[in-house]
């Protein structure tokens, strides 16, 4: 089927500045000393707010991490005078600076919500590891509380979930042999998870996971670390499902299995929002995995692949697995092979019975996009040249126009039509994006741009 693209009004043309020199993408910790910058806070917004869909403004400083929440834009950027980053909050639509504050050299912006902003610091340069969580008021930037010796797990509603790390100690992580064809488990010591009030830091609940048990955390929004629940699988095959907001047990299930779990996965949702009714267990020392029905605990089928095989729930009644040779779908009850795709290698999102798929086995460069009918494996629409920005309720895509310009569009999975709503200048690589309501924010090579999304009819 021929590709359909709708061009919307792109508003007044914007003259971009000269493209920046390519910079190595920064990950993990902050750089201790940043390059001095000549642009002041008052010059951050280089393009005024626009009406209608399209570019609202850009922020050209070296932005490290950005998130949108509650009508605000939060991001961290380098400072020219201090070793740590600057944390800033802006009005999402007009770009007005609401507050800013300096952060310590090791602090990172980990997530933001309507009411709070979370910063996390980790230091592994000494004899032991140390960590601290700092929580700010999203409206003012004032520090609400802090807690040391914890690692951040996620948030759910007005609760922040952390894992208690009582001692500052060196944690040596030994990764399994990448060439191993069997499942290998990490050490499984006793662990303690805490649910803390987002506003006060007061403890709401505590759950201790026994030694030898495996933990699987489920996120409803992985980008903003929004937790749904966490599951604990004991060596006796008992799976306990905890509510991440209350710390109460939601359900328990006895699997027809016992032993040491190298990994297990029970964190999917289908398009109805229902919790997963399947669990995949990767037993220690085994070259394969096992799929169980969660309500009954019975074994459904064996999967001939270790924990690196990429088995995941891709539709209501399907598991998928992809590698450089393509993508295959299997019945989630019997394991029977349903279909195979040669060019598509992984699913990027799900919209009803349609899968949004990519054609390269590389998350940082997902390749061209296609819409696939999950029932038959038929490619409904090949979207040549398009790449995924975000999936979920509003699938957003981008496509290069030339070496420095891209088109931004919204995909209608039902028809395969891409409605273009903006042109993005200074587009030099894969972006990091966040969507909140009516606006999209993306970082490309340290520059941040914000666009208003088109109205939905």
TrEMBL record:
InterPro entries cross-referenced by the UniProt entry: PQQ_rpt_dom, Quinoprotein_ADH-like_sf, WD40/YVTN_repeat-like_dom_sf
Please state every residue range assigned to the domain named Pyrrolo-quinoline quinone repeat: 87-256
A Pfam family reported for this protein in Swiss-Prot or TrEMBL = PQQ_2
SUPFAM superfamilies xrefs: Quinoprotein alcohol dehydrogenase-like
Q: Where is this region: Disordered?
A: 1-23
| Name of the protein described by the UniProt record | Pyrrolo-quinoline quinone repeat domain-containing protein
